[in-house]
Amino acid sequence: MILQTSVVDALASVVGPHGVSTALVDLQATSHDTWPLATKWGLTGRHPNQADVLVRASSMDQVAPVLAIATRDQIPVTVRALGSSVTGQPLPVRGGIVLDVSNVPASFEVDETDFTVTATASQNGGELEDALQLRGLTTGMSPQSLYRSTVGGWLATLATGQFSSLYGGIEDMVVGYTVILATGETVTLTASPRAAMGPDLRQIFLGSEGTLGVITSVTLKVFPVAQHQFVQTFTMPSVTAGLAFLREQASLGLRPLLVRFYDADEARHAMADPTFATPVLFVGTRGMERLATAEMEVLTDLAERFGGTAIGPAGAEGWLGRRYDFSTVESPLNTPGGYAETIEVAHTWRHLEGLHAALKEALAPMADEVLAHFSHVYPQGSSMYLILLGNLADDEAAIERIEAIWSTTMQICLDHGAELSHHHGGGLARSPYSRQSLGSAHLVLRKLKKALDPEGILNPGKLGL
Q: How far apart are the C-alpha atoms of 118 and 218, rounded to whole Å?
């Protein structure tokens, strides 16, 4: 769409003249996130998801006036922070405004009595965690993108972290937050510490990907940093045995810090040893010494019951030391013709092994390596994380291959009744499959969208909206 000069001037009156840009370089820069497909688009000079104007907010107080202008003139608004999404969530598919909140000064306040921290939604997650650690506290939130993401983004994408078995996902960590609706109202959703006054309205905006409102501040739980932590590495005889262990420990109500199981193909990468030949399991415990020790003893007994052999902590410790390393995916993407993709799905125990087998078989011809691990475990099932690596003649071929990988994976997951995403969210990658995945529940999402964003300006084209 082409914005009238009067609209750009109105936006500049809110954020200042230096906060508005229609420069092509800025619009192209905000037409990509870290989705591998978007990375390849950029490398080939493609910018299919380009806004008409970039608005850089310097205060969350500017959000409501910007939305008011957009609502008045029915201009799409796509909110963007650090752009660490790997599924195209912050990409403007219908032009309009990219509202960049990454430069809003971040601040936080810790309540050590009630064990909470309240932070500006633009707060960098890693910087927050580092500051809390100096106080002997932690949020427990540990995504691989910790230092590339914001706390507001965690809520908007329904994120989780690598220690979710102990601390839970963001839905378990959030105490409350403030959100600005497209219609201009500011709403605070909270519970102190739990409330039964109607439905838990805090859930509405979690995972909404900016389609229902703009999150401006967040209150999260914090926990004392435990003094004792133990990790162990086990070889496992098969995927069947590893999944049986995961199911058993979850059914017993254990809360390990770490539980990650890799099939034989990914075990070589997890162990940083190309000769490693069996599936591998990492487990860890954290807490008071006697409790952490006892939990590790139980986990060890369980692993051995399912054919596991302890080989020492080095494997798990090595992974902990490089868990923020993105090079396995980023290096191929930056090579002409190279491609890499990560797709995480979830299913119940009854169907998980069959889903693993079906995906590995279907995707094997589409990549040089198809890796899989299981890293977020529940009494009813687990996530499964796929990594695909390959190299083709040129970037055009790589783009076609990534697209084919997505369509194949999503269709197999739909056929198996699996969840299409566990923690990366929908974005552009999964939006075409959203209605089929959510089924009749998508009607609720559409009704919420109509009520909270009647002009449909917020991040159109996502979640099947």
A: 6
